[in-house]
Amino acid sequence: MAGDDVQFGIELRRWRTRAGISLADFATAVHYSKGHLSKIENGLKHAQPEFARRCDAELDAGGRLAALAGATEARPRPVEVADDGEAWMMNLTGDGAGWFRPMGRREALALGAAAGFSMGVPARVRSVEGTAAVAFRRQFDQIRKLGQTASPGVVLPTLVAQTHTVRALTGQAGADESGQLFRLASRFAEFAGWMTQEAGDERGALWWTDRAVEMAASGGDRHFASYALTRRALISLYRDDAAEAIGLAQQAQRGAVPARILGFAAQHEAQGHALAGDYDTCMRALDRARPLLIAPAEEGEWSSPVLGTTNLDDPAAMAVGWCLLDLGRPREAAVVLDRQLESVPADALRTRARYGARRALAYAQLNEIEQACALVSELLGPAEIVGSATVAQDLLRLKRIFSRHLRTRAVQEVYPQLTRQLSATH
């Protein structure tokens, strides 16, 4: 790492001096102290990827500085669960805690499943033909709404139970209804994967995503596997693994894929390029994503329930603000995020917390600390309710910036609340 720090420092000084910018002026431009910059340029201090992308944008380095600092920063990939998950075991306690564990059927029997309460023999897992798919489809919409206003700990037990029930019903249904139920079960499983990721369990999120692909394939859905690649790309983005995210998103765009899936794949590819500091390629990918994501849904079962977010009228437009922040352009990002957040429904707490944290981070990076604190104060309540591990990542970045401004009154007011909330999340 020391050698990498020295190389980055040399390149940063070279780009800065070539641009004719003094150390003092550059410190003002990127909102860091001269001492901090001097240590980085001399290889005495490690440059965080966020700092490197900011310098890259300020010096118009075309992603070169960002690449030097970010190449080794991705968190380790989670070890995926090898179990076939034929049997599912869930434990719930009176205080709201619980756990879920997939296991093989033999292991479940060895643990003494007979000691539990029976819920009916398999032959009785039935419903009147045609009613189950309609009823569970409505329940899915309600659970998705609940996911916007409640923590994963509240949502996941219901999701697990519904996924299991819908999957079990496929064995007693006719061919047509069985296909519908498998496809619906895959959506429950995919959403369980997202909620598991929000709970901070990437390995569990990947397991649920794999189960969703299997169920979708059993129901004749030829496209869900491509959508699952976009989910994996998103998980990689939150690990700061730009290369893997780009590769997965590009893989999802191969072949005859429905527009909405192509749109999310292009969007996540753009976000990967933003992490890598590649502005031009990022913007081209976003240009591809936008018309695909606002296009009318195509006919077919794959489009119902709607894949991806239902709380953003223009997901790619919001992603522009997201990407601009990662590209080290916080002023442009703040303008976009301010505008886009106006159209997010008031009851979509999870979505508002996610993009609200990004907006606050943009203002913090601009050194508009009081405005950033005001925004954080507004979103701490919603963020605490939804308990999002992904939102917490940006809140942690905000805390690091605020720690440099502890003498500011606004920071003194919000910092203890932010610290308490992050302690509870981690």
Please, could you describe this protein's structure?
Residues 12-43 form the HTH cro/C1-type domain. GO terms for molecular function: DNA binding. This is Helix-turn-helix protein. Pfam families: HTH_31. The chain is 66% helix and 3% strand. With 426 residues, the chain is mostly helical. Among the domains are: 2-70, lambda repressor-like DNA-binding domains (434 Repressor (Amino-terminal Domain), Orthogonal Bundle); 87-110 and 119-221, no CATH class; 329-425, no CATH class. The chain has a two-stranded antiparallel ribbon with strand order 1-2. Helix 16 (330-341) runs antiparallel to helix 17 (349-365). The radius of gyration is 23 Å and the shape is globular. It starts with a helix and ends with a helix.
Short description:
GO terms for molecular function: DNA binding. The chain is mainly alpha-helical.
Radius of gyration: 23 Å
Spell out the helices and strands N to C.
Answer: HHHHHEEHHHHHHHHHHHHHHH
Total count of strands: 2
The largest β sheet comes out as:
2 strands, antiparallel
Strand order within the widest beta sheet: 1-2
Average pLDDT: 86
Query: Helix- and strand-based class?
Result: mainly alpha
N-to-C terminal Cα separation, in Å?
27 Å
> What are the segments in which pLDDT stays under 50 over at least 5 consecutive residues?
113-125
Query: Globular, elongated, flat, extended or rod-shaped: what is the shape?
Result: globular
Oligomer: single chain
Q: Count up the helices.
A: 20
Helix residue percentage:
55-70%
Pfam families: HTH_31
InterPro entries: Cro/C1-type_HTH (IPR001387), Lambda_DNA-bd_dom_sf (IPR010982), TPR-like_helical_dom_sf (IPR011990)
GO molecular function: DNA binding
Protein name: Helix-turn-helix protein
